[in-house]
């Protein structure tokens, strides 16, 4: 009994060293994990979404409780062995210690209610020193409740490397060099912008006025410079703004652009780049949210920020190219009268979507 208590206290100390400052409220934030390499061992803490597991839910509430963890430890451990594979020099590590704890205990949890995730604590050991582990995680399912990404940082002495694992890219060789970091964060940036409907709708609303190539180049450049400034400043910790403020304002910026389209139309082209620049500063704070939440790769801090921004810009270029091609086709198919109606209709729809998001985010 005393040995178990000592182990748990020791492990909590390890978790405190592994976790980022934002994680101090609970054991391991959702979608995150950490591995500390010490000699021949790897100490692991990962937030596990219970939707990736099966066979534990005795009361059929879709959550996991401390009682369910204790009742199904062996079965859960077997599933976790299949989900998490850590290798050094091609060899899998031996699991010397394992525990499963609810991530952030609360009065409701203590009363027997469950949570949507728990923290897995493990110690892996090899026959020799671990320097560049290869990690594979297989807990990403098509079901949105099973989690889409895991920001996993590995700590080796004074070095830290962060990788974002997903269903599409579920393995990573840590400390393999800057190129691997660049690839990871470029992909993350591209995914983030292309999966952000509010940023894309803002760009679409700005571009649809169709005031010509000079206008399109001016507004896209203005938006790019602006969001790059606040993206870097926010990710590096120089500025910060709560999502509860930023997200509603981003929705409001869509409404503002849509109303401007309806009010002034192409006549707004002369002053629009400055307005887009102001809104872009706001959007940069929203785009940076994913980096602020999980942090930059400490050993390649500047590189990971640069790569993320490259990915954002690459995704933006692809989207803008598709929009401009579509607008060109619309211009060929429709006469001037119907083009004007197309702009008004798309702007009305954008304003409605922006208002819905504004209300939802304000109430949330």
Q: Secondary-structure element order, as H and E?
A: HEEHHEEEHEEEEEHHHHHHHH
Mean pLDDT: 82
Estimate the strand proportion.
Answer: 15-25%
The number of distinct helices, counting runs of at least 4 residues, comes to 12
For the largest beta sheet, what order do the strands appear in spatially? 5-6-2-1-8-9
Tertiary shape = elongated
Indicate the percent of residues in helices: 40-55%
The total strand number stands at 10
Organism: Pseudoduganella ginsengisoli
Protein name: HupE/UreJ family protein
Signal peptide: 1-25
Transmembrane segments: 199-216, 245-263, 275-296, 302-330, 342-359
Task: Describe the structure in your own words.
With 364 residues, this protein is an alpha+beta fold. The protein folds into two domains: 2-176, no CATH class; 191-363, no CATH class. It is 53% helix and 18% strand. It is built from twelve helices and ten strands. It has helices at residues 2-18, 66-71, 73-83, 107-110, 178-194, 197-207, 213-235, 243-263, 272-287, 289-294, 301-333, 336-363; strands at residues 32-38, 41-49, 84-88, 91-92, 94-102, 117-125, 134-137, 149-156, 159-166, 171-173. Strand 8 and strand 9 (159-166) form a beta hairpin. The two termini are 45 Å apart. Mean pLDDT is 82; it is low at 1-25 and 107-111.
């Amino acid at each position: 009994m005393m040995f178990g208590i000592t182990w748990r206290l020791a492990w909590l100390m390890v978790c405190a060293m592994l976790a980022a400052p934002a994680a101090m409220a609970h054991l391991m934030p959702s979608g995150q994990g950490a591995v500390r390499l010490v000699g021949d061992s790897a100490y692991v803490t990962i937030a596990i979404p219970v939707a990736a597991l099966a066979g534990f839910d005795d009361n059929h509430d879709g959550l996991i409780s401390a009682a369910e963890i204790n009742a199904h430890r062996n079965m859960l451990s077997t599933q976790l062995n299949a989900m998490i594979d850590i290798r050094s020099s091609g060899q899998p590590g031996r699991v010397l210690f394992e525990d499963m704890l609810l991530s952030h205990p609360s009065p409701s949890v203590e009363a027997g209610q469950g949570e949507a995730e728990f923290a897995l604590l493990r110690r892996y050991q090899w026959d020799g020193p671990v320097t560049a582990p290869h990690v594979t995680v297989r807990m990403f399912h098509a079901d949105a409740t099973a989690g889409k990404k895991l920001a996993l940082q590995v700590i080796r002495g004074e070095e830290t490397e962060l990788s974002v694992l997903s269903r599409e890219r579920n393995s990573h060789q840590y400390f393999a060099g800057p190129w691997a970091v660049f690839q990871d964060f470029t992909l993350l940036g591209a995914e983030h912008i292309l999966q952000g409907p509010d940023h894309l709708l803002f760009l679409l609303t700005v571009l649809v006025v169709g005031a010509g190539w000079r206008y399109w180049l001016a507004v896209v450049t203005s938006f790019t410079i602006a969001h790059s400034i606040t993206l870097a400043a926010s990710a590096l910790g120089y500025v910060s703004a709560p999502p509860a403020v930023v997200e509603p304002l981003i929705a409001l910026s869509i409404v503002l652009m849509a109303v401007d389209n309806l009010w002034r139309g192409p006549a707004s082209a002369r002053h629009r780049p400055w307005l887009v620049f102001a809104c872009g500063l706001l959007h940069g704070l929203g785009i940076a949210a994913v980096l602020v939440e999980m942090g930059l790769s400490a050993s390649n801090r500047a590189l990971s920020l640069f790569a993320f921004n490259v990915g954002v810009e690459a995704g933006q270029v692809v989207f803008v190219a598709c929009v401009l091609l579509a607008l060109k086709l619309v211009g060929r198919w429709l006469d001037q009268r119907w083009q004007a109606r197309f702009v008004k209709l798309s702007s009305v729809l954008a304003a409605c979507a922006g208002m819905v998001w504004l209300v939802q985010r304000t109430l949330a």
